Amino acid sequence: MVGTTRTAWKGLAVDLGASSGRVLTGEFDGERLNVGEVHRFENKPVSLLGTLYWDLLHLYQQVLLGIGRVRKEDGPIVSLGVDSWAVDYGLLDRSGHLLSNPVHYRDRRTEGIMEKVGRQIPREEIFRQTGIQFLPFNTLCQLSAMRETGHPHLEQAHTLLMIPDLFHYFLTGEKVTEFTNATTTQLYDPTRGTWSRPLLDRMDIPRHLFTGIVPPGTELGRLLPLVSEELGGMDFSVVSVATHDTGSAVAAVPSSSDSYAYLSCGTWSLLGTEVNQPVLSERALSLNFTNEGGVEGSFRLLKNIMGLWLLQEIKREWEREGVFYTWDELMDETGEAEPFTAFIDPDDPQFLAPGGMSGRIRESCRRSGQPIPDSNGALIRTVTESLVMKYRWVLNHLEELVGKKMDVLHMVGGGIQNERLCQWTADACGRPVIAGPIESSGAGNLIVQLMAAKEVASLSEGRELVARSFPRRTYEPSSTTAWNEAYDRFQKVLQSG
Fold this sequence. Notes:
- This protein is an alpha/beta fold.
- The protein folds into 2 domains: about 10-240, Nucleotidyltransferase, domain 5; about 255-435 and about 455-495, 2-Layer Sandwich (Nucleotidyltransferase, domain 5), CATH 3.30.420.40.
- The chain has helices at about 55-70, 115-120, 125-130, 140-150, 150-155, 165-170, 180, 195-200, 225-230, 245-250, 280-285, 310-320, 325-335, 355-365, 375-400, 420-430, 440-450, 460-470, 480-495; strands at about 10-15, 20-30, 35-40, 45-50, 50-55, 80-85, 90, 160, 175-180, 190, 195, 215, 220, 235-240, 260-265, 270-275, 290-295, 300-305, 410, 435, 475.
- The strands form 6 sheets. Strands 17-18-16-15-19-20-21 form a 7-stranded mixed β-sheet, with helices on both faces.
- Helix 17 (about 440-450) packs across helix 18 (about 460-470).
- One of its GO terms (cellular component) is cytosol.
- It holds the Pfam family FGGY_C.
- One of its GO terms (molecular function) is glycerol kinase activity.
């Protein structure tokens, strides 16, 4: 049974994405969860002397501003939790002071590092110890880049905290690392349930940087007096939720079946399913799948896909040239373009860095001997069709790894506002897509807070609450023959790359 308290529970979810942040309120009346946005702000990196940084102090200021906008007359806040993107971190000195703004995962300092790490320790050994897919910006690669260049902060640092753990530290003074984000670092051993000491030692990364690991739902304490004073006397508990935003998003997937896959769709797309134990097989390694922590000790077997970043970069590029589209207008342009003209691999490393995206995409088509998209609509269509084809590729291999067919694909996150993307995903994957909720990370963040407060007894009960509280839309697949024929061509593009 869901909690039946007569006085509404109220919490705050801070959801930091790679392009924007939100402060959300959550009110639970014993039957439904109502989520509202009180503050949204831009998350824009800063390039300084050749290094790309997150503007962490700006983000912290905006978080406090958002908290301060919550109306006192609406009732007291019980708790707050922060979730964000993974892999990035901040370093604190012995006095607990931040040594510098965290470096952005798209910074070029890790170029070539993943290959050097692989020469030092075989990939098979790293995967066996961590279960994490190989990406050039993993925390392991970022720290290895610091070690290679002799960056002084690596020696000066006393503590490493992931981005949401940094915010929890700023608010409470507590230094801990939450499980779901710890698992993304490629430095956590899921079999032993602790940091991989052999890996840290072989890469010459100081062990003392790493704190204790806590599960989602851990209450960290109350606000520091100075923070409470800055917020006009507000005081509430801070809960370490599923701090990896995808971990929170998956917690809010409104499914009661175990034969489903999820697609968290935003700047990044993450497609996977939940498993009880990490999948560490040679096949999982060869497909470059990853095992990230979830709520209640589960693991999320998934694959990162470049996602809407490609479209966002094209849109920013055109805006710098004075051409402005709304997202709806952008997708409407695709209706004028021929379908299945050309494909790219969205996960080609050449598309990772910002700038000049449309030119790189056209050049990729040219090199692979395909027609070059010659209009804005054709370019957007090429990217979107390639993206949903990659969803199908990942879903097919996910089913292979777990040995069962996924009856439905639950699609959550901001990307579900793109109806054409949702329909094309259903068409490409050949199965129903259930879209919703949009604010999945925020909803999952609040569900874990409710679990910590004993208002919700379990994750399954929390998902039932999500199903009652948020609208969903089902997209049925159509035109499967044309998509199947196009998928064969897409696979040839992947193989040629």
